[in-house]
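can u do me a favor
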């Protein structure tokens, strides 16, 4: 039975698995040599250096068995001469091809958005790692908008989208059906907290 993916911060004993995952990412990406070194020892040193820089994190995802199936590198970029907003730079997000389409990428993105909130970053900025159509669809589905060669999303909007995607598809379909019927009848949208019995909003019901 497959467990839901669990995203967390990297631990020292995760390094060997993350290094191997990054080597797979290197082979999978058209960036190739520009992405990272193919040498495990060099890559381990580079990963340790990244973890040691201010404002950086390495996020990993497993299925509850400590087998790393996805990783993301993030860096906080503060307000500076060239930007009047603080943002989280998602330097790379990669999921093992054998574990895609099981929510691993969303779990990593959810943790990245929480890291952004904790650091006061109003936006999350990333650059597609492989440029594949599936990666573009993944980012677009989460609300990322083109910004030159990068993609950008408001942190709050990204969290809302991830919360919506976490709702089972059947429940989402029912909500969408109710919303369409209310629109067709000229009724206002359902209040955020739903409707209580007797037509009163739950926020005002005693």
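np, heres the sequence
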């Amino acid at each position: 039975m497959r467990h839901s993916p669990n995203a967390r911060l990297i631990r020292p004993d995760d390094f060997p698995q993350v290094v191997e995952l990054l080597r797979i990412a290197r082979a999978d990406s058209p960036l190739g040599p520009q992405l990272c070194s193919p040498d495990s020892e060099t890559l381990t040193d580079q990963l340790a250096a990244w973890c040691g820089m201010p404002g950086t994190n390495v996020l990993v995802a497993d299925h509850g068995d400590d087998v790393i199936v996805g990783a993301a590198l993030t860096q906080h970029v503060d307000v500076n001469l060239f930007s009047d907003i603080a943002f989280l730079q998602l330097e790379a997000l990669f999921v093992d091809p054998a574990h895609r389409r099981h929510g691993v990428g969303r779990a990593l993105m959810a943790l990245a958005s929480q890291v952004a909130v904790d650091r006061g970053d109003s936006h999350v900025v990333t650059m597609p790692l492989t440029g594949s159509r599936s990666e573009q669809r993944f980012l677009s589905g989460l609300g990322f908008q083109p910004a030159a060669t990068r993609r950008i999303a408001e942190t709050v909007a990204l969290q809302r989208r991830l919360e919506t995607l976490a709702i089972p598809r059947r429940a989402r379909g029912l909500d969408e059906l109710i919303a369409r019927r209310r629109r067709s009848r000229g009724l206002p949208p359902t209040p955020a907290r739903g409707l209580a019995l007797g037509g009163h909003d739950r926020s005002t019901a005693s």
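The radius of gyration is 20 Å. hope that helps!!
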